[in-house]
Amino acid sequence: MSLTRLHKLDQQSLRFALSLAIFLTMVLTAFAHTSAVSMTPAADSTVSAPASVTLKFSGALEPKFSTITVTSAEGHVVNKEASAVGGDSKVMTVALPPLPPGIYTVHWVGVSTDTHRSQGDYKFTVK
Amino acid sequence: MTGWVPALNVLVAVLSDSSYAIIVGALLASWWLSRIAAEPGLDGINISGLELRRVALLFLVVLIACHLVRPWFVASSMSGSTRFREALALVPTILTSTRQAGLWYANSLALAVMLGARLFGRGRAPNAVRWIEVLGLCVLAATKAASSHASEEGDFTLAEISQMLHILATSVWAGAIVVSGLLIVPRMAASGRIPELWSYGSQLSKTVTWVLCVLVLSGLITSWNDMHGAITTLWTSVWGKILLTKLVFVAIALLLGISTRFRCLGRPATSDRGTLMIKLLRSEAGVMAAILCISALLANTNPGT
What we know:
The complex is a heterodimer of chains A (127) and B (305). Chain A is α+β, with helices and mostly antiparallel strands. Chain A folds into two domains: 1-31; 36-126, Immunoglobulin-like (Sandwich), CATH 2.60.40.1220. Helices cover 20% and strands 35% of the residues of chain A. Chain A is built from one helix and eight strands. Chain A has one helix at 3-28; strands at residues 36-40, 46-47, 52-57, 67-71, 84-85, 91-95, 102-111, 117-126. A four-stranded antiparallel sheet of chain A has the order 1-3-6-5, with no helix packed on it. In chain A, a hairpin with a 5-residue loop joins β7 (102-111) and β8. Chain A is elongated and about 40 Å long. The N and C termini of chain A lie far apart (80 Å). Chain B is an all-alpha fold and 305 residues long. Chain B has one domain. Chain B has helices at residues 4-38, 49-79, 84-89, 91-97, 99-120, 126-146, 158-190, 194-226, 233-236, 238-265, 271-299. In chain B, α1 runs antiparallel to α2 (49-79). The longest helix of chain B is centred in the N-terminal third of the chain and has 35 residues, at 4-38. The interface between A and B is large, with 35 and 49 residues.
């Protein structure tokens, strides 16, 4: 095999390796999506009346557009204050008044700094 | 968001990304052409100089128009409202109280300087204008990276820098191929400047090869930071299917690029191979345009859907 041919094959191998790597990296990229990764109280947990609900997100939040609302089993909003994003821009908290026993639903909207909006809800029980 | 807003958002993103890539491509093409003109034994390609400047100016205006309407789309995306007036009412909040505000003002400044340089500086100091444009394009890439998911761990992180390089590399690849395949190479071949065509093609090919290296490296770093292992999303979501479609087009573009390199540029210059190069580059340009469209659609699709 001549050196020129070998050189061309090397270039072809390099191109193929690059193509494959690009394919793989593009597959592996962009699975990221800001969402709630931990909740206090936890989803479906039974707890004593909590003083607040705290959600930690996978990415930084836009405070002006991110919210937590807690509703009772009857659908009434129980939090008196608006939720706030704290010093850690991934953590959002809402203070709660003393809650009587019952099932409560936490509705959250998390708007990430890349402008994407995600939302969800979960329940917890106050014993 | 439902209805016409997401479709319009994607359309604006396609226009914006394509315009950015074409400006990058026009800048590179003019640089390669000036190098050919300086090469002994080769003729300068003056025919495309004015046209390239007009193309760059046209797409700079399109880019500015997309930039001006962006706050409304950001307001719509953040609030979830698709009503024109509701989202419009939130634009002042976006431009005063969110992370997007500072980035939007930085973009405005970069675009204003680029427009001013292009309109008033071209005849006086072409090199200075070129470097101002390079700087402006880097600022635009940096702010785009800073407004993407890569910024969620903070600014000036490895993920954000890697994302910026990824944006630049993609734009160099797409822009260089689109401008060369649709504007420069056909003109060169038509005027029978085969040696110049080969010289131009070699510079294009070398640049694209280096850019692919940057794409791989930046992609690996970004994926290392972002991967959450949910690979099944690829088959189970609309988003995953769009990504797979994009990857098919990327593979086709790479194959066309390899063909250009080995079936044309790697062999002696002839007019037949010049004709083949035009066909391959035009096809690659078409595929790159499709990739830009699919990328914009992908960027505006929730990975969870």
